[in-house]
Design goal:
Low-confidence stretches: 1-44, 408-418, 554-558, 589-664, 719-730
Number of strands: 42
Strand order of the largest sheet: 4-10-9-6
Organism: Astyanax mexicanus
Number of helices: 6
Oligomer: single chain
Structural class: mainly beta
Radius of gyration: 66 Å
Subcellular location: Cell junction, Adherens junction; Cell membrane
GO molecular function: beta-catenin binding; cadherin binding; calcium ion binding
Keywords: Calcium, Cell adhesion, Cell junction, Cell membrane, Glycoprotein, Membrane, Metal-binding, Repeat, Transmembrane, Transmembrane helix
Pfam family, one: CADH_Y-type_LIR
Length: 754
């Protein structure tokens, strides 16, 4: 059962429900205010009080708002209390409750703009302070009154609109605020324009602007916004609440009329006369003037001048004075009075931005500028400067390369008060000629006979001091038909070729004549003799000795132990040989020079010995220093053999190679042939011969036996090199030394049997 008790401005509702509905699946969730009594099994009663609405700015104080009442008053005394913001919490002292009657009252007028609502808690207590009921929530809402005027967000608004804008063009938006409740008419605003003033005053009398009363957008209403007539407008704005019937406030809006490019610049006057000195560059000739009615110093007012006719060689230029907006004509290329004494220029003017489509059609304004060129006494001039000449690099001295004239051919026959000259630059370009033949490299090399066919050969190239196209590609050819039967040259690219044998050749040295040619016009070539050594090589590409080559190239298999035995035997033989040489050297004695004769260190030792002359070896062709024939008797002289053994590898040598540090096929120098008259001159004689041999271009590039004198055949004396090899001391007979004269007396005393 439900019952409602109504009091003046009071509504108290109590709900009682002894039997919960069976379809309530979870009463505690669906109805959280219900609580089952553990003893009676029914729902406990609660207060439900609807929100209380109080008008702001009420002058009735105190004002009774609502009364709460508990049914516990029928069983005993009840005391009421009130808590929450507005009572005992900030803001305090706005509300209070009569603890005996339960009346809730306001203690002062309320302001909705400060506090829109209050939420309070009401309690029913016993005299001892015990809660008799659950506290109830009381919501108090403050009702709005139109007690605030609307206000614009700024005291003055500024906007701009281009001239000749069509009606309906949006200019700017104004805005206002109202502190009253925005959900009521108290804050429903309406905008309007109450006055319009033009600047200059009274330039336009019709209404040119309107405003949307809801949005505050100001727009154009009529045509005729010409900036030449009116510059700006001052509008008085009004805003009112209650849809325009409530409180009001005002503001101002300043609207400027902006310029568009609706005027073409015009020349005034349209004809100008100026003077210019010939041969002057960078000087200003004069100014032209054009005017524009658009806003000054704007892009619609600034003028760009251009020369559109009368200057095909572009001798003149024109620029704009940013202050006066005039055009300044200047000379950018020298003028020549003799070529053209007067110019008629056509100058046009336009703005920096294109003309607006709203502007009336007008042709571009032009002006005529007449410039007279003043003559001056000038120097003769070359037709061209610089003068370019192309000369071959091999041009002969004193050969004419270029002849050139001047502009004034009669200058040689004209007399001036002061002499004037002209200068010009002469640029001479040397073009390449084929004046150098290519040089073949290398001149000496090795061909490894134990390599694969594709790796067999000597890589050839050439060096040419000329530049392209007189250098590579090179062509390589065999210069000897006989050699071409055994050797061939295979081109690899434009600069390299491979020299390869056509067949298996015997090991040895070969001198191969090769011709190399360049690609010049005409082509040049050179011949070279390439010394090639054919031999088996080690991994580094170096020739191996004959014994090593025989071992490593033998088809007979050698075990490792046999190889060790062979090497040990060779080492033992070498050791015995060195020991024998050392014993023989220790038994001898050195000779020294004394009074032009050879005197032994010890007169007691008169045995044959090998005399050491500090010889350090003869290089590739010298195995033993004491085998070199320094002096040879006529009986020992014989022409050198055509073929002899290679001292290192043991391979037969076929031809004597030429020296690389000397020109090809030059004559040999003259060797000294005069026999020394005094034995003390032997040293000078040998040194002279050595110097000539060093400078001999046909001498081989290694040490070899040199013939210092040839006295004919049939000499009874033997070679000096055979003195130490004729037998032991007891077998020698030196008595014949006494017959050789006083020069050999000392030697005869040392070795004769007397």
């Amino acid at each position: 059962n439900y019952y409602i008790t109504v009091f003046p401005t009071i509504l108290s509702i109590k709900i009682y429900s002894p039997h919960p509905r069976q379809n309530d699946l979870n009463p505690a969730v669906l109805n959280p205010w219900r609580e089952k009594s553990p003893g009676l099994g029914r729902v406990k009663r609660d207060w439900i009080i609807p929100p209380i609405r109080v008008l702001e700015n009420s002058k009735q104080v105190p004002e009774y708002l609502v009364q709460i009442k508990s049914d516990k008053v029928f069983t005993g005394a009840v005391t009421y209390s009130l808590e929450g913001p507005g009572v005992n919490q900030e803001p305090k002292d706005f509300f209070e409750i009569d603890e005996k009657t339960g009346w809730i009252m306001s203690k002062m007028p309320l302001d909705r703009e400060k506090y829109k609502s209050f939420t309070l808690k009401a309690f029913a207590l016993s005299p001892s302070g015990e809660r008799l009921e659950n506290p109830t929530t009381i919501e108090i809402y403050v009702l709005d009154q139109n007690d605030n005027r609307p206000s614009f967000i700024q005291p003055e608004f500024t906007g701009a609109v281009p001239e000749f804008s069509i009606p309906g063009t949006s200019v700017l938006t104004v805005s206002a605020v109202d502190a009253d409740d925005p959900t009521t008419d108290n804050a429903l605003l309406s905008y309007s324009i109450t006055n319009q003033e033009s600047i200059p005053p009274f330039s336009i009398n019709k209404t040119m602007f309107g405003i949307n009363n809801e949005t505050g957008v100001i727009y154009t209403r009529d045509v005729g916004l010409d900036r030449d007539v009116v510059k700006s407008f001052r509008l008085t704005l009004q805003v009112a609440d209650m849809s325009g019937f409530g409180l009001t406030s005002t503001s101002l809006a300043i609207i400027h009329i902006t310029d568009i490019n609706n005027h073409n610049p015009k020349f005034s006057p349209q004809t100008y006369k100026m003077l210019a000195m010939e041969n002057k560059v960078g000087e200003d000739v004069g100014r032209v003037n054009a005017t524009d009615k658009d806003e000054k110093n704007s892009e619609n007012w600034r003028i760009i001048y251009s020369i559109t006719g009368g200057d095909p060689k572009r001798n003149f230029a024109i620029r704009t004075d940013r202050v006066t907006n005039q055009g300044i004509i200047s000379i950018v290329k020298p003028l020549d009075y003799e070529s053209q004494a007067e110019y008629h220029l056509t100058v046009s003017a336009k703005n920096e931005v294109p003309l607006s489509i709203k502007a009336p059609y007008e042709q571009t304004s032009t002006a005529t500028v007449i410039i007279r060129v003043l003559n001056e006494n000038e120097a003769p001039q070359f037709y061209r400067n610089p003068i370019e000449v192309s000369v071959a690099e091999s041009t002969n001295p004193e050969e004419a390369v270029k002849s050139h004239g001047t502009r004034t051919a009669y200058v040689l026959y004209t007399t001036y008060a002061a002499g004037i000259s002209a200068t010009a630059s002469l640029e001479i370009t040397l073009w390449e000629t084929n004046d150098f033949p290519p040089v073949l490299v290398p001149m000496i090399g090795t061909v490894c006979s134990d390599r694969e066919p594709e790796r067999l050969g000597l890589l050839l190239t050439a060096v040419d001091e000329d530049l392209s196209p007189h250098a590579d590609p090179f062509s390589f050819e065999m210069a000897d038909a006989d050699m071409a039967a055994n050797w061939t040259i295979i081109p690899l690219n434009e600069t390299h070729a491979m020299l390869q044998p056509r067949m298996d050749l015997t090991w040895g040295e070969f001198s191969i004549p090769i011709t190399v040619s360049d690609s010049g016009e005409p082509a040049r070539s050179s011949n070279a003799l390439v010394n090639v050594t054919v031999c088996p090589c080690d991994r580094a590409g170096q020739c191996m000795s004959f014994a090593a080559a025989a071992i490593f190239r033998s088809n007979v298999g050698l075990s490792f132990i046999a190889l060790i035995i062979i090497m040990a035997s060779a080492a033992l033989l070498l050791l015995l040989l060195l020991l024998a040489v050392a014993v023989r050297s220790c038994s001898g004695h050195r000779m020294k020079k004394s009074g032009g004769l050879l005197v032994g260190d010890s007169e007691d030792d008169v045995r044959d010995n090998v005399f050491n002359y500090d010889e350090q070896g003869g290089g590739e062709e010298d195995e033993d220093a004491f085998n070199i024939d320094l002096l040879r008797t006529p009986g020992d002289m014989a022409p050198p053999p055509e073929t002899f053994s290679h001292p290192v590898s043991g391979f037969p040598k076929h031809k004597q190679p030429l020296r690389k540090d000397a020109p090809y096929n030059l004559p040999s120098p003259r060797y000294p042939r005069k026999r020394p008259t005094n034995p003390t001159d032997i040293e000078d004689f040998i040194n002279d011969g050595l110097e000539v041999a060093d400078n001999d271009p046909n001498a081989p590039p290694y040490d070899t036996a040199l013939i210092y004198d040839y006295e004919g055949d049939g000499s009874l004396a033997g070679s000096l090199s055979s003195i130490a090899s004729m037998g032991s001391e007891e077998d020698q007979d030196y008595d014949y030394l006494n017959d050789w004269g006083p020069r050999f007396k000392k030697l005869a005393n040392m070795y004769s049997s007397d």
